[in-house]
Amino acid sequence: LPTTLSKQPLYEKVGWRTRFRVTSPVLCVQVSVTTTLTSPVDVVKTRYVNSSPGEFRSAVQCAGVLAREGGFKIFYKGCVPSFFRITGWNLIMFMSYEQLRKVVAKKLKSY
Predict the structure, then answer these.
(1) Residue by residue, what is the 3-state secondary structure of the chain?
(2) CA neighbours within 13 Å on the CB side: how many for 89?
(3) Model confidence band, residue 63 (pLDDT cutoffs 50, 70, 90)
(4) pLDDT of residue 1 exceeding 50
(5) Can you list the pairs that 80-89 forms with residues at least 24 positions away whose Cβ atoms lie under 8 Å?
(6) For the stretch 43-76, what's the b/e string if a residue is b when 16 or more beta carbons lie within 10 angstroms of its beta carbon?
(7) CA 73, CA 77: separation in Å to the nearest integer?
(8) What does the alpha-carbon distance between residue 43 and residue 46 come to, in Å, rounded to a whole number?
(9) Handedness of CA 32, 85, 5, 25 (dihedral sign)
(10) Is-contact 48 56, C-beta < 8 A?
(11) How many Å apart are CA 42 and CA 79, to the nearest integer?
């Protein structure tokens, strides 16, 4: 739903009709927002799960220790590879979905 809502202004105001030209920039923006918001959670989760038993009392304490040791930047470690991984997956998935939707719509009209 967010993808559809964010693509609609590009269809109407900009006049782009090619799906790839609309889907690519919209997905890149969405993935960058998602990666920015979820990267700190992923870093804390990974450190907490991979720590030895008793090293951290909770995930919140783990986040505090990470912030003291590495500063703000440590929460975005691995952000760029994550962005490219998610962008590639989303582009393939949404482009396949739109092509499949076109084929199914043509088949339904021919009945």
Answers:
(1) CHHHHHHHHHHHHHCCCCHHHHHHHHHHHHHHHHHHHHHHHHHHHHHHHHCCCCCCCCHHHHHHHHHHHHCHHHHHCCHHHHHHHHHHHHHHHHHHHHHHHHHHHHHHHHC
(2) 8
(3) very high
(4) no
(5) 82/35, 82/39, 82/42, 83/31, 83/32, 83/35, 86/31, 86/34, 86/35, 87/27, 87/28, 87/31
(6) bbeebbeeeeeeebeeeeebbebbeeeeeeebbe
(7) 7
(8) 5
(9) positive
(10) yes
(11) 10
pLDDT digits 0-9 by tens, 15-48: 555 566 667 777 888 888 888 999 999 999 999 9
Are 39 and 82 in contact by the 8 Å Cβ rule? The answer is yes
